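Lab notebook, design round three. We kept the backbone fixed and only want residue identities now. Task for the bench partner: fill in a sequence for the structure below.
Input structure tokens:
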């Protein structure tokens, strides 16, 4: 497939329907039962760190980060990351990953957690979480629990149960204050 001249831009509220359709197509109804989805349930994704790829007004892919805490340590949960099937394998997912991680680092985020495959996410700085250090409120293959440190030393305090949320004020201010 030839190189595409797509744009990556911040997600806007009017993208919601197209993104939901993309997620339904990519992950099916089983996505609602996954542990990562359950953590994100009821917690708004972070609009500062959610991006779409588009070409001539057509959504090609999307990535979202959702604010979480690992114990008391603020972090972001990556996902979903999805690309329309007709444009997979041309670098859109990788470009979305680079953009969201670069912006997260620029905004002072320290950690990004995800459930995924190390061969794909490893080149972006993700590593396996040491077994037992971070717990999710549901089943997950420990070999697929990955974390990227966007700020040196951020992993030092990250341990315990993952739960969703930080206050909007904490996100905007870039502070880690009390849990929400």
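Proposed sequence:
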């Amino acid at each position: 497939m030839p190189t595409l001249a797509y744009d990556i831009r911040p997600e806007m509220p009017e993208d919601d329907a197209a993104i939901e359709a993309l997620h339904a197509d990519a992950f099916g109804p089983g996505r609602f039962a996954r542990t990562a989805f359950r953590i994100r349930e009821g917690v708004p994704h972070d609009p500062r760190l959610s991006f779409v790829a588009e070409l001539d007004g057509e959504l090609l892919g999307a990535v979202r980060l959702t604010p979480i805490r690992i114990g008391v340590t603020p972090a972001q949960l990556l996902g979903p990351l999805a690309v329309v099937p007709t444009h997979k394998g041309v670098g859109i997912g990788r470009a979305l990953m680079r953009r969201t991680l670069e912006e997260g680092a620029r905004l002072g985020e320290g950690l990004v957690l995800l459930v995924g495959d190390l061969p794909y996410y490893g080149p972006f700085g993700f590593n396996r979480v040491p077994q037992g250090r971070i717990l999710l409120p549901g089943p997950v293959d420990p070999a697929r629990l990955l974390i990227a440190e966007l700020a040196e030393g951020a992993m030092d305090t990250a341990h315990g149960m993952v739960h969703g949320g930080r206050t909007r004020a904490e996100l905007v201010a870039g502070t880690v204050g009390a849990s929400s």
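Keep this in mind before ordering anything: Residues 68 and 164 are 4 Å apart (CA to CA).
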